[in-house]
Amino acid sequence: MKTPIKPYYQVNRAQSLRPTVPSHRLTLPVLIILTAFLLAGCGAVTQSIHLPPVSETSTGQIQDGRFVWLDLMTEDTVATAFFYSHLFGWRAAKSDEDGEYYLFYLDGKPIAGMAATESKDAAAHESLWLATISVSDVGKSLASVKAQGGKLLEGPLDAAGRGRMALVSDPADAPLILIGAVGDSPVGRKAKDGQWHWIDLITQDGNRARGFYTALFGYQVEPVEAGEGHRYDIFKRDGRAVAGIVELQWEGLEDNWLPYFKVADVDKSIEFVRNLGGNLILKSGKVAVLADPTGAVFGIQMR
Description:
alpha+beta
């Protein structure tokens, strides 16, 4: 099997692969994501809000350990919507007229969400992409998260139309959302331009990360030949590649999940990103890692 992401990077260490976002700063916008609406000024959260399902086509089963959705926590929803609409052809729209949660659409279908977060430090970006992963039993998965050294940050809460959701972090504080989805996990599909198709865990401690995620989701680990100074593995479940894990010994690097989107031309996309106010972090061949104008880091790949 070919490696989904070629694991050799030309590194610009002047930029980080993840902004520093304290876990308590994630909970408010994630509550918005989990419920799609925050009651203004009182901190209370409505418990029955409709969100689109993560799957539009029935598979007849929940596939534990599969990444099924992405949400963008951003400091500027207007600038962010402009950036991604011009880069990938997305359309952004509020999930409801008075809501604080937005949906990104491609060809009329929802592909990701967006919620606002505020930075108290003008010099520090706190925007980031947040991944959602499918589980068959949220309660059992939360018990496993805690047993393996992870943390429950918020929830669990029920989002009508989507499922039961909880915000957690792994032992190195990489955040992700667990979902017991209403209906099924999405059908596997070949990504087209503008769609996300892969995700990597960036970590300094590969042994700890591999131990946590294999125990939590039953992943098998397949090592892949990598460049000098880092290690790359593939997480698999039932023989299917699910995600990658990149071990990098960079001072100050914070663990995080990094999504990749398919593009027709990497170099043209990089130029487009720069013209739209984003930045190139690193590039290798047909793969690049970039930051949007608010600092949220993501990858692109030409396939």
